[in-house]
Amino acid sequence: MSCGPDPSDWIAPSLPVGWRLLSFHFFVDWMQSPPHLANRVWLARQVRFEHESEMAKELESNLLNMFNQSDDRNCFDGLEDVCRKYSHDLSAMILPDIPVSVITEQTPIWVIRRTENADLGIGKYSVNSLKKAIQFHSGGPVKVGTKGLTYGTSAVECFLSGSDAAFPGDADGVVVDDQNQVRCVIEYKKHTIGDALDNHLINRYYPSPDGRKYKRLEALRLHYERVNQSPTPLVIVYFSTREPVIRLQEIDRLNDDSVDIRRDSGNINIDGKHSNDISKQVIQWLGIQI
What we know:
alpha+beta; 11-stranded mixed beta sheet
């Protein structure tokens, strides 16, 4: 089954030279009201094993070499530059790509982070220690709901979704300029059902059931805005897998029981358009000067 289009293809191609579109997992402390942004950022990646028994071997040096020789190293370095500017601590979480049914509390995961001598180092941990870290950075137990995830970006994420240490949510798209300054936070909202996209905008899902998602993103946006000392918008990009239409809304304010919209593009027909042409239109709407 197709997962549908990748919205980053409608943004990244028309960004100015030196600008980037980043994605990562981040934490908020849910014990604070409103939730307060934590300083930990994770770059999650998966590694596939032919057999689960391979995970018991001493793989640290091999995994670190693989990471350093891949595009993920460049992604890590670029994200680290941004994290340094905004006082975030970055780690790369290497998760096993194995069936959810075989994951246990003892299943290994690996963490890559900057060491005291400025090199990248790797350590082996367990899913149980991962759960403890999630709760620590989240201010306590955190759940996604009673059903958990039936689909997620990783098997470990799905496994944790049924626990009280749900894997942290991500920032779908963070637009960063050539000075590592965040210019915009973007949430992708995929529409898959037959009903019109217009009937499934944020007002239908906030404050319930998606209140926590948008409160997290607002905490991230506010942090960037305080450091930037300039407006840093939060924008939702809606897209349909059933019809060639997208829509953009910029959030003005998240109230306790409602949301105010600052700008709304209305429905944009993208039928037959190349992603580069769509991205030019989206970048223009975002107000990014090319």
